[in-house]
TrEMBL record:
This is N-formylglutamate amidohydrolase. Keywords: Hydrolase. GO terms for molecular function: hydrolase activity. The lineage of its organism: Bacteria, Pseudomonadati, Bacteroidota, Flavobacteriia, Flavobacteriales. The keyword Hydrolase applies. It comes from Gelidibacter algens. Pfam families: FGase (PF05013).
Amino acid sequence: MRKLSVKDIISKIESEELFHAVASDYSFTIKIDDYVPYACAAIHNGHQFRKELWSKCLHSEYDRWYEEDPKTKNMLKPHPIVISGLDSRFEYDLNRDPDTAIYEDAWGKQLWKEPLTEDEKSRSLEKHQNFYKVVYALIKTLEMKFGCCIVYDMHSYNWKRWDREVPTWNLGTSNIDNERYRNSVEDWRKELSEIKLPNGIPTTAKVNDTFQGNGYFLKFITNNFDNSLVLATEVAKIYCDEEGQVSYPEVVSAIRKGLKKRLPEHASNFYNIYSN
């Protein structure tokens, strides 16, 4: 994997080159093994936290891990186009707009012992801005090349904090064109519900049950591109012990295997319907 500037990454995308890269500031990775009409994203996969901010942060390393989406990039590994965050959402949240991307408090707890300086904030927001420059170039290239594009926006959530039964998979669709894409949403929900998981883990899949798809990543693409659908896809953290910070490799592997088969098939069906 090569270290590349954002300018070089965008240039390679616009030239339709195949490459694996990490951004020169190590804030995200992108790989393109083929140009296809779909892309995968794991924007909350990152756990890095800038060293100069450690002493200011009231949340522990475990607190941060608990709210991140570990292993989501791993689940998407087989797919030809994957973009993934490397930084923790506690430094800046790629799923929030720039004005709210830096938390003051997080999940009911004050985040900083003392306010961040403007310089500390601007360094984080520059990384946020660069990420979206690349996202824009990528989706623009795919939409121009294929006439449409579908993006699988992969997240995870802490099912144990809910005091009711919640689904293994949740699709958030409140900010997409549901009339236009209703069938694609239902097909994806059905595909997810059929992924086999070990240890008797159920695979229920629902729409807008725990989350409604209000993230900035989805809104950014939806607002900038007329023929691109983003499916905000949340998996409950059944693949790890939320409280013990231990991952279950066999469950991660089963999810990856299920997505490896079903995701390209779903994307192909989407392309066949919407490319015209």
